[in-house]
Each structure stands twice: as C-alpha cells, then as structure tokens.
Amino acid sequence: MSKILVTGGAGFIGSNFVRMVLLGSDHEVVNVDALTYAGNLENLTDVERHQRNTFVRADIADPAAMDQVFAEHRPDVVVHFAAESHVDRSVIDATAFVRTNVTGTQVLLDKSRIYKVQRFVHVSTDEVYGSLGPWGYFTEETPIQANSPYSASKAGSDLLVRAAVHTHHMDCIITRCSNNYGPFQFPEKLIPLMIANALEGKKLPVYGDGRNVRDWIYVTDHCEGIRMAMEHGKAGEVYNFGGDAERENIFVVKEILRRLGKGEDLIGYVKDRPGHDRRYAMDSSKARATLGWTPRHTFEAGLQKTLDWYVANKPWWERVRSGAYQAYYEQQYGRR
Ligand code: NAD
Ligand code: DAU
Predict the structure, then answer these.
(1) Tens digit of pLDDT for each residue in 91-143?
(2) How many other CB atoms sit within 10 Å of the CB of residue 89?
(3) Which ligand is closest to the CA of 205, given by its number?
(4) Is 3-333 assigned to CATH 3.40.605.10?
(5) Closest Cα to residue 207, out of 186, 193, 195, 187?
(6) Is-contact 5 69, C-beta < 8 A?
(7) Is 272 an active-site residue?
(8) Which of 127, 158, 224, 277 is catalytic?
(9) What's the whole-model pTM score?
(10) Domain locations in the chain?
(11) Which residues line ligand 1 (CB under 6 A)?
(12) Residue 279: which of 219, 229, 216 has the closest Cα?
C-alpha cells in the first residue's frame, strides 16, 4: 500500500482517478486541490468519508502551503492533475495557466525531491505536440509544438519534469492523453456543454466549420492508464494514451442530438477559436506494448454511458451552471 498525493482530485479526471484508487486498490489518497471554479467536491460525495481518503484545500503554486502538506502527509507517490485546463480561457487570460501549470508543477517537483517522493506522475496532454494535418499520429517522439497558451503552459511543465529527471535523477513519468469525456466533466468542454444545452433546448455553439478532429477517450480508460504507468511505468518515460476514436466535432454534436432525440436546428455555427488546432490523433502503441494498457470503451459505448449519466445527474450540472456547487466546501468543512 502506498500513500498517493493526488493534486487536482476535485476536478474531472482527478475525481474519477481518486474514486478508482479508493474503490479499486488499497492505496491511501491525499487529495490536494485549491477548489478553483473547476474544482467541485460534489464530484466525490460517494467516497469523501472513505477511511483512506483525506482532502486538503491548498494551492500547488504556494511553496509554504505545499511544504506543510508534504511534511504532514509524507507521500510515497505524487500524481499531478491540478491545472488550468480550458483552452478558451487561456486565450482570454493566460496568467493563471502559467502560475498553476508551470510554477505549480515546479513547486511540486521541489517538494517531491526534498521529501524523497519515490515516484512523480505528471498528467499531461496530446496538445503539447501541436496540430496534425489529415494524416499521421502523435508518438512519444513527436517534437513539442504547443499552439495555445494552455498547451504552451503544459509543455513548459513537461519540460520542467524532464529537467528534474535529467538534473536531479528524480523518478518521474509523463503521461499524455487525448480528449477525455465522461461523468463529472465541467460543462464548458465540448461534450458536456452540448449535452446540457441540448437537454435545456439551448443552442449548441460549433466553432468554425465544425470539422476539427479530436481523439475521444472515456475518462476511466485514461485513469487506468495513469494507474498502470504509476505502478509499472519506467522512470523517465513518456506514455501516450488515446481512445482510437477520432471524430469531427460536428459528428459528435449531431450524434448527441440524435441520441437525445433532439433536432439539428439547435446547432449554431459560431466564430472559430483563435489558433484552433485542426486535428489530434494518438499512437498509444507504447502504452499497449509495455504497460498492457488498452482502452475498454468504444466511442459509441462511452458516449451512451456519458449521456445516461448527464440525464440521470441533472442536479449535478445544474448546480455547476448556477454556481451553487461552490458553497459545498463551506457547508462540509466550514469557512476556509
Ligand atoms: P479540471 O479543470 O476539471 O480540474 C482541474 C483541477 O485542478 C480542479 O479541481 C482545480 O480546482 C484544481 N486546481 C487548479 N488550479 C489549482 C492550484 N493552483 N492548486 C491546486 N489545485 C488546483 O481538469 P481535468 O480536465 O480534470 O484535467 C486534469 C489534468 O489532466 C490536467 O493537468 C490536464 O491538463 C490533463 N488532461 C486533461 C485532458 C482532458 O481532456 N480534460 C486530457 C489530457 C490531459
Ligand atoms: O486533447 C486534450 C485536451 O482536450 C486537454 O488537454 C484539455 O484540457 C481539454 O480541455 C481538451 O481540449 P480541447 O480544446 O480539445 O477541448 P474542448 O472540449 O474545449 O473542445 C473540443 C473541440 O470542440 C475543439 O475542437 C473545440 C470545439 N468546441 C469546443 C467548445 C467548448 C466547439 O466547437 N464549441 C464549443 O463550445
């Protein structure tokens, strides 16, 4: 049994990972999250009282706060999800992206070295590789060519992790994954936004010509990959994860409408995202061959599970859209 310090465990992927670890292993979890707009403890209500779960509200870019966390909890492993994660927000203002994604990652690397953490797993993204034309795939050898302020800040964090391996001989692993979807995703990202808008009869804003391509992966398949990389990955290595599910955005949007029984008149084409990457596609053969990982969900099965979840959990996303979810921390833990 290991003690895993999970950063960003109140976010979308982090909360799915925390649940998987608590319910599927005997590891202990210390979940460190600042609870920004994207952090939601209502993502974890089913496991929040689990005896191997501890929650700490703290900012990863605050060295004094992190020192306190590492000194008190002495983690064996760090799995680092915490980030500003939404590309459109980074186009408007990149300040928080640089602070959390770059400075925050370095603070965690420093504390991990000082407190002799055995392994540091850095959760990164396919977006650091840039954009593809109609053919080809990103491999772990593809040069970093980040295009948005978000992906540039993630690329910066990847390079800091690489430097920690090279300079300080730290045991770090970088995972890079394609577009996740599934339960508890904040309804600003394509799939949950389109589902929630369709269910409320609102317009579905499709950027540009709608023909940009993403490789969709069901969130628990990504979480399994991270767990396998954490447990069996080789120090200093990068692992790509993708869902083998390349789809044009307009296909995804029409499929959501079709499955919800709504008309395509809800689709509204809007101005394109500045610098919009055209296509992402992952070659995950290294993770398959060396970790024995494989995504379990087809896009069709994963999308249906996701639709069912958002239909059944309307109060969850209504509380996110109204802002009511932000009072949950104070209700449970008192004022900060
Ligand atoms: P998210 O935005 O849903 O969650 C981010 C979490 O980090 C939130 O709980 C937030 O409160 C927390 N956080 C933000 N700033 C913090 C700070 N300064 N200190 C402590 N906590 C802070 O993000 P997500 O979609 O779950 O993504 C998680 C990680 O996975 C990110 O690193 C992201 O780059 C990466 N990733 C995401 C995807 C995807 O499709 N969503 C794909 C590949 C990689
Ligand atoms: O590829 C991995 C990345 O996937 C992660 O690193 C990011 O954290 C995550 O946000 C996601 O980035 P994208 O920009 O690809 O995801 P998003 O859901 O914002 O957009 C998906 C596609 O849909 C993209 O081509 C833009 C388009 N889009 C998005 C929104 C929010 C629309 O057409 N309309 C929209 O309203």
Answers:
(1) 999 999 999 999 999 999 999 999 999 999 999 999 999 999 999 999 999 99
(2) 17
(3) 2
(4) no
(5) 193
(6) yes
(7) no
(8) 127
(9) 0.98
(10) 3-333
(11) 7-8, 10-14, 33-36, 38-39, 59-61, 81-85, 100, 104, 123, 125, 154, 177, 179-180, 186
(12) 216
